[in-house]
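Page 47, continued from p. 46.
Same chain as before, 309 aa.
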Amino acid sequence: MASTTLPGPSPRAASVRRPWRSLGAQIALLPMALTVLFVYVGTLLWSMRISVSSSKVFPRDDFIGLTQYQRLFETERWNISLNHLVIFGVLFIGACLILGFLLAVFLDQRVRGEDVLRTIFLYPYAMSFVATGLVWQWMLNPQLGIQATVRAMGFPDFKFDWIVDQNMVLYTIVIAAVWQASGLVMAVLLAGLRGVDESLWHAARIDGVPRWRYYASIVMPQLAPAFGTSFVLLSVGVVKVFDVVVAMTQGGPGDASEVPAKFIYDYLFNRANIGLASAASTVMLLTVLALLLPWWYARALQAKKEAKR
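Result:
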């Protein structure tokens, strides 16, 4: 029996339909494009314009150049907040990368209950920074938390009051932030580890290569893109850190845990100096761009190299 072939759409009909489908997709994306253009980009340009004006309580349409930026970096509180941000960023990013890598290596051993453990490790990241800050504030409260619990167990001299110590309070915020964000790093690096060829480990075992040397010399170089992605995500989180600080310490005691986002918030809403707050927010925007642009450039170069192959 001869087979019959149903006639398909002609090339001309297909070429007619494609522009209409493309037009429909563009119309569907139009609201989001307008939102990005007028809300995000418009707000950004407005803030930059305000930062070069003498605006205080209300916006002004004058131009004073970089005077607001000069005042900003002459403000002691701003310089203190930048110093705290550097300390927080170095400790937070370093601890998250190390802990996240160790957790990823642990789960990569195909341990029993891996799905449950992966959920447990990643769960803190699903919490908001406000909830994280409140939980750790209670845990570190000398009258209610760890210190009080250990003393009630029969150790009256035990002391763990970092959250009210001006010299140590910043480290309590680092602990809380690492507890929340290290699970994200674990998930990113674990995905990278699952992409490493297992035959490399078998070959390393035959050659008598220790496990630590295998991960240090073979695995970690292959995880460079995953480490780069984790670094960028953590760095952006450092620049905009605000919720956990407000929830745990309100920037105190004194200004011992002040950060730039808290500075911007206070000058914008409490001190009614939108010109200085806009200058500070513009500086933080430039900081984020300084972190993202090299990463985007590296990704673009890598994509070109892969395309040439």
